[in-house]
Design goal:
This protein is of the alpha/beta class. It is built from 15 helices and nine strands. Helix 5 links the parallel strand 4 and strand 5. Helix 5 runs parallel beside helix 6, helix 10 crosses helix 14 and helix 14 runs antiparallel to helix 15.
Length: 305
C-alpha cells in the first residue's frame, strides 16, 4: 500500500469488503452498501449473495481475493473455526490484505480466537477490531445494532463513520477480547433465561395451571424479560420456532462462555446447567430452530409434530 493509500485506508474513501451474509451479516452489509455506495462481498450461499449483488455489490470469490481489493473488511461468521480459516487460512484475508488495512470481526468468537487473530494480523501490520454485536436480524436490517468495539482506541474511533452505518450505539469496551466479554456476558443472561422459562412453564403445566395466565401474567411482573415476551410467549409457546437467533448459535455461545470463565477463573456453575439444556436440545435435532426451542427439552408437545 502506498503512502497515499495508507492515509485513506480508514477514511470514507476506503474500499470496504464484507464476508458472511447470513441472518446478521446480510443486513449489516446491505446498510453499508446503501450508505457507502460500494461494497465487495464474499459468501458461499448464492441466496445470501443475490440481494446484495442486485443492489450493486461486487462479488469476490475468496477471502484472499477480497482482501486484495479492500482496505477494510468486516466479517460476520457463525463459528470461531470458520473465522480463523477465513482470516488466517492459506486463502484467507491475511494473504490478500495490504499492510495498514483493517479487519473488523463482528462475530461472537470468544477471547482466545480474537486474540489469536489479532496477533497474526499485527505481525503483518494489519489492524484488527473486535466488535461483536447486540440485538438481532431486525436491528441489523434497520442499521440499529448495538456494537461492542474493542482494541486500539484510536482505531475504533477512526472507524466510527463506518460502524455508525450498522449500529445506532457504539460502545468502546476496552482491549481486544473485551468486546467478546461483554457480548458473551449478554448471551449468558439472555440465552440463560430460556432454561428457567422452560422449567417454569413445565412446572405450571404439570400443576394443571391455566397456561394462558402464565403467558399473560408473568410479563407483567418482575419475572419479565425480553426473551420471555418475544421468544417464548410470542413464539415458542405457540409452537413457532422460526429462527431469529438459532439454537445452534446459542449452544456455541454457551460453550464459549464456559471456556472464557475457565480461562479467567470465574464461576460458571449456572452456565454449565444451562449448557446441558442447550446440548440436549441440539442433540434432539433442534439446532436450526430458534433458540426458544430449548423449551422443547421439558415441553416436547410444543413442537406439534
Amino acid at each position: 500500500m502506498s503512502r497515499d493509500d495508507a492515509k485513506t485506508a480508514m477514511t470514507p474513501q476506503a474500499r470496504i469488503g464484507f464476508i458472511g451474509l447470513g441472518l446478521m451479516g446480510g443486513g449489516m452489509a446491505m446498510n453499508i452498501l446503501k450508505k457507502h455506495g460500494q461494497l465487495n462481498v464474499c459468501d458461499l450461499d448464492e441466496r445470501a449473495l443475490a440481494p446484495l449483488l442486485e443492489a450493486g455489490a461486487v462479488r469476490i470469490d475468496s477471502p484472499r481475493a477480497l482482501g486484495e481489493v479492500s482496505d477494510i473488511v468486516l466479517t460476520s461468521l457463525p463459528d470461531p473455526a470458520i473465522s480463523k480459516r477465513v482470516v488466517l487460512g492459506a486463502e484467507g484475508l491475511i494473504e490478500g490484505l495490504a499492510a495498514e488495512s483493517t479487519v473488523i470481526g463482528m462475530s461472537t468468537d470468544g477471547m482466545e480466537t480474537v486474540l489469536e487473530i489479532q496477533a497474526a494480523l499485527a505481525a503483518r501490520h494489519i489492524r484488527f477490531v473486535d466488535c461483536p454485536v447486540g440485538k438481532g436480524p431486525t436491528a441489523a436490517a434497520a442499521g440499529e445494532l448495538q456494537l461492542f468495539a474493542a482494541g486500539d482506541r484510536a482505531t475504533c474511533d477512526a472507524l466510527r463513520w463506518l460502524l455508525s452505518m450498522i449500529g445506532s450505539k457504539i460502545d468502546y469496551c476496552g482491549p481486544i477480547g473485551a468486546g467478546q466479554a461483554i457480548k458473551l456476558a449478554n448471551n449468558l443472561l439472555s440465552c440463560g433465561y430460556g432454561a428457567l422459562i422452560s422449567e417454569a412453564y413445565a412446572m405450571a403445566k404439570q400443576a394443571g395451571a391455566d397456561l394462558n395466565i402464565f403467558c399473560e401474567a408473568l410479563p407483567q411482573t418482575a419475572a419479565n424479560s425480553w426473551p420471555l415476551q418475544n421468544v417464548f410467549v410470542a413464539k415458542a409457546f405457540k409452537g413457532d420456532f422460526t429462527p431469529y437467533f438459532r439454537l445452534s448459535a446459542a449452544h456455541k455461545d454457551y460453550k464459549l462462555v464456559i471456556a472464557m470463565a475457565e480461562s479467567l477463573g470465574t464461576p460458571s456453575h449456572a452456565a454449565r446447567a444451562v449448557l446441558d439444556y442447550y446440548t440436549a436440545a441440539a442433540d434432539a435435532g433442534h439446532g436450526d430452530r430458534d433458540f426458544g426451542a430449548i423449551a422443547l427439552v421439558n415441553n416436547p408437545e410444543l413442537l406439534g409434530e
